[in-house]
Amino acid sequence: MKERSSPEITTPGSRGNRHVTIYHNPACGTSRNALEAIRGAGLEPQIVRYLDVGWRREQLISLLKQMGLGPRDILRVRGSQAEALGLTGSEVSDEAILGAMVNQPILVERPIVVSWKGAALCRPWQRVQDLL
């Protein structure tokens, strides 16, 4: 298993031109299931433990663009401080949410998977099949 020390978006993680990166939290069952599905397809992904290495603002913006989502779409509310930080209100700006995600990586929902087919928030984990 390859583990990333710095979060990159487009680095090879498997054979040939079939690159897969998973932004992974090993404590999360959904993330573990997505990782197993990738491996079950015969691919060994780059694994980015984003809780350990954190996020860069530009990186999140790039991932959001690839997924066609906004920051609110990947805001993790359950099991995080999102509500306590006042991030769940409709008046909260995307910039405020992005800033909070950079400061507290747990605020990003997981897993995010990037492959040669695109990028997606893989909740439920079966969504990873669309990327393989």
Describe the 3D structure.
There is one protein chain. This protein has 132 residues and is an alpha/beta fold. The chain has one domain: Glutaredoxin (3-Layer(aba) Sandwich), CATH 3.40.30.10. It contains four helices and five strands; from the N terminus they run ββαβαααββ. It has helices at residues 29-40, 50-53, 57-67, 94-103; strands spanning 2-3, 20-23, 46-48, 112-115, 118-121. It has a five-stranded mixed beta sheet with strand order 1-3-2-4-5. Strand 4 (112-115) and strand 5 form a beta hairpin. Mean pLDDT is 89; it is low at 1-14.
Strand sequence of the main sheet, in spatial order? Answer: 1-3-2-4-5
The Cα radius of gyration reads 14 Å
Structural class: alpha/beta
The CATH architecture assignment turns out to be: 3-Layer(aba) Sandwich
N/C terminus separation = 18 Å
Overall number of strands? 5
> How many helices does DSSP assign?
4
Keywords:
4 helices, alpha/beta, 5-stranded mixed sheet, Glutaredoxin, disordered N terminus, 5 strands, globular, 132 residues
Present the secondary structure layout.
Layout: E1 2-3, E2 20-23, H1 29-40, E3 46-48, H2 50-53, H3 57-67, H4 94-103, E4 112-115, E5 118-121
Parallel strand pairs: 1-3, 2-3
Antiparallel strand pairs: 2-4, 4-5
Task: Summarize this structure briefly.
With 132 residues, the protein is an alpha/beta fold. 28% of the residues lie in helices and 13% in strands.
